[in-house]
Amino acid sequence: MIELDRLSKTYDDALAVDRLSFTVQTGDIFGFIGPNGAGKTTTIKILATLLDPTAGAARIDGMSVVDEPEAVRRIVGFMPDYYGVYDGISVWEFLDFFAATYGLRGAQRRKVVEDVMALTDLAPLRDKLMVSLSKGMKQRACLAKILLHDPKVLILDEPAAGLDPRARIEFRMLLKELRSMGKTVFLSSHILTELADVCNRVAILERGRLVAAGTVDEIVAGIAPVRAWRFTLAAEAPRAAELCSKFAKVRAATVEGNAVRVEVEEGCEIPALVKVLALADLPIVGLAEEKIGLEDVFMRTTKGEVA
Ligand SMILES: Nc1ncnc2c1ncn2[C@@H]1O[C@H](COP(=O)(O)OP(=O)(O)O)[C@@H](O)[C@H]1O
Ligand SMILES: [Mg+2]
Fold it and tell me: Topology of domain 225-291, per CATH?
């Protein structure tokens, strides 16, 4: 549904997006992840037809974002990372106004506005002034606005940034609902864990370049034949870390408070390591395997450790 082909963007002399290629399938909730300055907003603005690429191409539903911007806009709902506040108008007036600009009239317009308010749980807030809404509610109103023309594709730039936990949960539920309606959602974040459980696929971007793409499981499996164990000690964690780091197939041992986090390769003999520590009079009071999650993957990939 969305295809990027060696997409590049240069600002003056600085390369912000560097030959980016990946595909978003119909029905994906696709997470576009990278630290601040990675080039997410630049890419998104190109997809939303607001910025021309310097080189390469991008297509949405087969249409070029450069050559057919109007046709692309008809099937795309775009929510920028910052949106203005509309003083003095209510939620309903805000939505009705934009529905009118999409050419909707009369009973049809009323129905579309009601449907969209129902989907985004805004009906109880219909008469509230936009300016009085919380960040989460305002965001829902902006999402409602971009759903008015029933787009196939939603492009959301950092939609979860600044939301409180409750608003975040509501936002996730809304995403799942949009997915069940068959929409394709492309959304960015600089915080991986914000998206990990709602996205079926992700792309990780660093300094304008793609460092990994695929399903969350694929990305974790691809870079992490490594496991991590946490040894909690009654005392002397630094000495334990020192011993662990010398043990076979241990990649790294770091002190974290009274614990040692040990990253090991496949085949590392954990029971033997426990014995080594016990023989060195280091009393282990806790031992647990840590699940290597996406956050670890993200930290490792964006440190450039994974090509
Ligand atoms: N309008 C602009 N003019 C010049 N440089 C820009 C402009 N917009 C973004 N950049 C630069 O491009 C890079 C990518 O920025 P951006 O796409 O906003 O990243 P992200 O959204 O991932 O934080 C950054 O180095 C940023 O400073
Ligand atoms: Mg951005």
Answer: Alpha-Beta Plaits (3.30.70)
